[in-house]
Write a structure and sequence with these properties.
Largest sheet: 9 strands, antiparallel
Structural class: mainly beta
CATH topology: Jelly Rolls
CATH superfamily: Exo-inulinase, domain 1
Number of strands: 16
Length: 222
């Protein structure tokens, strides 16, 4: 079931849980239980993250995660733990423009393919940054096509930092770019999953992320 919402609502889901025995993931779950805002990136290492997919590379530079396009299919830097109801915030800048995205409530198939919800980073003339795409599964769920989304299409700055906010509570998924509302979607395909940063296949793109934080949300929150 897929429904695009025009008004706010509320839904319920269980609290976030860790998917692996990774020590940092376990620490994040303890912080979540205490209601803390959790830094998923410590600013100086890729501890708590792992690469899945193609040949793009990820490194730390000046307090940022930097992903550089490489050979092969789409490449993802994935969290070790999984999350259910949350608000995720992070900053994105394109050193070299290229398609990218932020996976949330996503999964990895046995063949190594990442699938699930993706908040788009789209520097092309189409300008669908902030739309929701279902990676390696159903395709676009909430594009930014049409006059109703004109403000959302104008929100992303190709030559500057961009603040992304993704809120997932129950089956309601919402996104903002630079505080401009972009997607508002009802979809019940995935109640929890990992967070990942994507570098798209295609040979171009250097993407920089910083200040990656997640705030677990109470099941009864709007």
């Amino acid at each position: 079931m897929v429904v695009v919402l025009l008004a706010f609502g509320c839904a319920t889901k269980p609290p976030p849980v860790a998917a692996t025995p990774d020590p940092q993931a376990d620490a994040h779950v303890a912080e979540a239980a205490a209601g803390a805002v959790i830094a998923l990136f410590d600013g100086h290492s890729l501890s708590g993250w792992h690469v899945v997919g193609g040949g793009a590379t990820f490194r730390v530079d000046d307090g940022c995660i930097v992903g550089t396009a490489g050979p092969g299919p789409n490449t993802f830097l994935c969290t070790s733990g999984e999350w259910s109801d949350f608000e995720l915030t992070l900053d994105v800048r394109l050193d070299v423009p290229g398609n990218s995205g932020i996976q949330f409530r996503s999964h990895v198939r046995p063949d190594g393919v990442v699938y699930g919800y993706q908040c788009e980073i789209d520097p092309s003339a189409r300008s669908w940054s902030g739309g929701i795409y279902d990676e390696s599964r159903r395709g676009w769920l909430a594009s930014l096509e049409g006059e109703a989304h004109a403000a959302a299409r104008a929100a992303f700055r190709v030559d500057d930092w961009n603040r992304y906010r993704i809120r997932a509570v129950g089956d309601r998924l919402r996104t903002w770019v630079n505080d401009v509302p972009c997607a508002d979607l009802i979809d019940d395909a995935d109640a929890s999953g990992l967070i990942a940063l994507q570098v798209h296949t295609g040979g171009t793109g250097v993407i920089r992320w910083r200040d990656v934080r997640i705030a677990p949300i109470r099941p009864d929150a709007p």
